[in-house]
Each structure stands twice: as structure tokens, then as C-alpha cells.
Amino acid sequence: MSGRRRSLQDVPATGHADRGLASQLDFLTSMVIRIVVFGLLLTMGIAILHGEVATDLTNRVVAERAAARLADDLLVTTPGDALLNATCTRAFFARAATTCGVDPDWTSGSDDYPNAALAIDPVRTVNVTITDDAGAIASLSNTRLALGPRVPEQSPSLRRWHRQVALKVGDTLEWYRLTVTVWGRP
Amino acid sequence: MRADRGQAWTLDALLMAAVMVAGVVYAASVLPASTDQAANDDEIEAQLTQDARDILAVALETGTLHNATLYWNDSAGRWSDADATGVYTTLPPGHPLEPPVRSVFTDRGIAVNLEVGVGTTGGAETAHPLLLQGAPGSHAVSVAVPVVLTDVDYLSGTGVPISLNDSTTYFAPDAFPESPKYTVLRVRLTVWRH
User: Fold this and answer.
1) d(C-alpha A19, C-alpha B8), whole Å
2) How many helices (H) and strands (E) does chain A have?
3) Which of the 8 DSSP states describes residue A8?
4) pLDDT at B192
5) How far apart are CA B37 and CA B154, in angstroms?
6) Residues A50/B35, Cβ–Cβ less than 8 Å
7) Distance, first Cα to last Cα, chain B
8) Chain A residue with minimal CA distance to B26?
9) Are A175 and B51 an interchain contact pair (Cβ–Cβ within 8 Å)?
């Protein structure tokens, strides 16, 4: 029997194929991890930013609903009326309980007014005004139609909602603008 | 050889990390602007829709809208004080809708179109323009309400007051000849920012 002794050089070169396969698996694994991490970072970034936008949208919804509660219910004779009732309007801004729908518990002496009357949580601040064509605060029987703290010049969470309203003064229809401003966040 | 491979992997890792961070920074800088802009546009359109609804609701309840549809000069055959085209580009002083349209929309740079729809046989509707300030933009909003006219309503504005039944030029015909009701118009208010 002839032949030389087998040596390592005679071992089939299957090691290269194994190493290639291992490299491919390694690459695949690392790409999957990178994509997952990238996706997580992106999602976290969006969640942080989206949270800010969502809060501002909430204040807008709060302002819109408060304005609806005033223009369609508390300041009119019958819910759904388009014209304001002068007595109800004056009473709301004068913090006087009337039959117009303002609960006496909400009014004078309460720190929660007008938040409680407008179903707004106490941590938000609300300002309500009725202005004329020129933008000046309107008055009814010496009652200034403005309620709430002064609106800040700048507030990232500040949102406003307007309603166009009208009062019959004698035979004349007077047009006004009701504005509800909400700022602050829970 | 192993050192070369190690360096290659390290460079690869650094490059991928830089790509990921750049991607997150880019997304963070672009996304809030587009989200805020979209929310802002939605809010403006929603407010315009609310303003238009409020104007029409108050005008309907107080009879102002009814009077506006009757502000017709029968002898001239067009809206009172309108020019030769018969359509307003600005509501004249004295027009029932002039105060709210001017203070709520015109003075704030918002364009307005007012059209009065007249039903025709077959269910279709013909729009008769009352006020036209241009072609509505892509973010225009539109609100419509019905206005009922009766045979005993009078055309107002300039000229001798004349009842609808006696009018020879009013744009809407008597849709209910056998009843006191004359017709039902649809007043459509379209507003948009220039």
C-alpha cells in the first residue's frame, strides 16, 4: 500500500463554506438588530413629540366645547337658540345665578368659576370674552363681558375658539364675537 | 488579517450608528413641523366652518337671511344696488347681511361667496349667485341652510315693494302654486382665506 501519510493539506476545504455561512448569518443578525433599534428610536422620538401636539389639541377641544356650552346653552333662552339672551349673558359674566342654566354652586364665591360652569378641569385656565366689531370688550347693563385671568402673551399650550353671536337690542341686531381661551395642561 | 477585519467591523458599526442618529435627527426635525402645520390648517378650516354656521344660524333665526333673499329690485330684475352684472362683489350698505359678512370675513381677509339655490323639476338645483368674490380655494369651507318663502312675502330694497306673487323678474318661480308656500331656497355660504 503506497501513499503518503495524510496531512492537514489533504483535509477537504469545507471550512471556507462554513465561515461564509457564518458571516452571512452574522450580517443578517446585525442588520435586524440595527433596524429594530432604529425603529425604536424613531418611535420614541415620535411619541415624545406627538405627546406635545396631543395636549395642544386637547386644549383646543376644551375651548371648542366650552364655547358651545356658552353659545348654545348657558347664554341663550332655550338650548339651541341662535340669539343670545341679554339677561342670561349678563348673569354669567356677573357671576349671578339665574334660571338660564347656571347652577348657583358654580357662581360667586367659588374659586372654580367659570371652570365648573364650563366643565373644564381646574388645572386648565380659561378666559371668556365677548367683543364687538372693533375688538373691544362689550358691556351689558354696566357688566363687562369678560371673565378669567389675563391671557398670556405666549403660551405653547394656549388655544382659542370663537363663536359668532348676536343680541337683539331693540329692533337692531348687534353682532359680537364670543372667544374662549384655554391654556395650561394637566 | 484579524486586526484588519476588526477595524473593518468597527468602522462598519460607527457608520451605521451615524446613519441611525442622522435618521432620527432628520425625522425629529421634519415631523413636528408637518404635524403642527396640518393641525393648524385643520383648526383654521374648522373655525371658518363654525363662523359660517353661526352667521347663517343667527341670520336664519332673526329673519335676516329671509330678508336677504328678498333684497331684490323687481324693476331692474336683479339684486338691489347690484351693478349691471347683477351680482355683488361687496355687499352694499343697507344689505341685511352686510354687517356680519364684513366684520367676520371681509375685514379679516377672508373671501366669501353667497349663492341661492333654486330647486328645479327633476330634483336638480340651480345656483343663483348673490355675492361672488372669486373662485374658492382648496381649503374653502361651505355651509348651507334652507329658507322658506311664502306668497305674501314682499321684495324689499330699492324700488316699490312688491309681493312675490306679483313679481315678474324674481329668479325663483312659484314652486307651490296651489299653496301659500312659494318656494324653498338653499342659501350656501362658502368662505376661504385668500
Assistant:
1) 17
2) 2, 6
3) G
4) 96
5) 49
6) yes
7) 69
8) A42
9) no
**How many angstroms separate the CA atoms of B60 and A164, rounded?**
14
ipTM of the complex: 0.79
Cell of A31: 442588520
- Predicted pLDDT of residue A186: 60
Query: Which is higher by pLDDT, B155 or B7?
Result: B155
Q: pTM value? A: 0.77
Phi, psi dihedrals of residue A145, rounded to the nearest 5°: -90, 70
> Most A CBs within 10 Å: which of B14, B44, B49, B50, as the mutation test of the A interface?
B50
Chain A CB contacts of B24 under 8 Å are: 38, 41-42, 45
pLDDT tens track for B144-159: 999 999 999 999 876 6
Exposed/middle/buried for residue B18 (C-beta within 10 Å: 0-12, 13-18, 19+)? exposed
CA–chain centroid gap for A112, Å, is: 21
Which among A85, A93, A96, A71 has a CA at the least distance from the CA of A178? A71
Strand partners, B72: B79
Q: Which residues of chain A are within 8 Å of residue B64 when distances are taken between CB atoms? A: 173
Q: Please tell me the distance from the alpha carbon of residue A176 to that of residue A164, in angstroms, as a whole number.
A: 6
User: Which position has the higher pLDDT, A161 or A121?
Assistant: A161
DSSP conformation class of A156: T
Alpha carbons within 13 angstroms on the beta-carbon side of residue A176 total 29
* A76–B contact, CB cutoff 8 A: no
Model pLDDT, residue A19: 75
Q: How far is CA A4 from CA A12, A13, A14, A90, in A?
A: 16, 19, 22, 115
**pLDDT by residue (tens digit) across B76-85?**
999 999 999 9
Asked if the bond preceding A114 is cis, omega within 30° of 0, the reply is yes
- The residue among A14 and A63 whose pLDDT is bigger is A63
Residues β-bridged to residue B119? B125
Q: Does B103 touch chain A (CB under 8 A)?
A: yes
User: What does the alpha-carbon distance between residue A166 and residue A176 come to, in Å, rounded to a whole number?
Assistant: 6
Distance of CA B113 to the CA centre of its chain: 6
* Cell digits of residue B145: 341652510
